[in-house]
Amino acid sequence: MKASSALGVSGAEDKMRIILLGPPGAGKGTQAKVLAEKLKLTHISTGDILRQNVSKGTQLGKQAIEFMNKGLLVPDELVTKMLTEMFDQPDAKKGFILDGFPRNIGQAQTLDDILKQRNMSIDMVAYLDASEPVIIQRLTGRLVCSACGANFHTKNMPPKKDMICDNCGSSLYQRADDQVETIKNRLEVYQKESAGAIQYYEKQKKLHRLDADEEAETVINNIIHLTAQYNDSPKV
Ligand code: AMP
Asked: 101 CB less than 6 Å from ligand 1?
């Protein structure tokens, strides 16, 4: 892919398949939303899909909420089934940016199997590496829009009106799992579970490490720069 086309002007970059890996608070959700728009890819966030299921009170939501509120991983079979359904949606065929999946080596292997059955594969994995103090500061101040999902921050990016989304005027809330104790659990789970997935993509030579303590804009530009090295070879 040429640098110009990496900016989402046109062409085969529409079919890029990217994973954002990294601890909670590394900025995966924020970066993925912007990148999906710039690169014209579908943003697939397993955390967002699970939260939607919880708020709609679906069977999956009821099974997942207990794990989510404790900062634990939702069992693989539930998340995998949910993701498989996503890959059968027409939007996923346009290329996607995956945020929040895989979380462990089992999920990484399952993902490859699911994609292979659909003649697809992952092109690139961006690993967003952030330090614990930065993560805690970001997550404890994070505010999320209840309608459009936009993210704000009490200090780094306060909304213009208190607890109201600048984009759509809906109310903002703090995620139940963004309390300090739950954040620490999530980080522990992340350290324990994710190492296998990171090695998995390192072995496949798809992993790129980025400093995610940097400002969001810098990280996004660095990821876009990386996508430029993927060529326009036709993909299924
Ligand atoms: P996130 O929005 O990515 O921080 O995810 C919020 C919560 O959803 C996590 O703490 C997990 O409980 C659950 N979750 C999201 N993605 C996964 C996944 N791939 N596997 C298991 N649980 C997940």
From this structure: yes
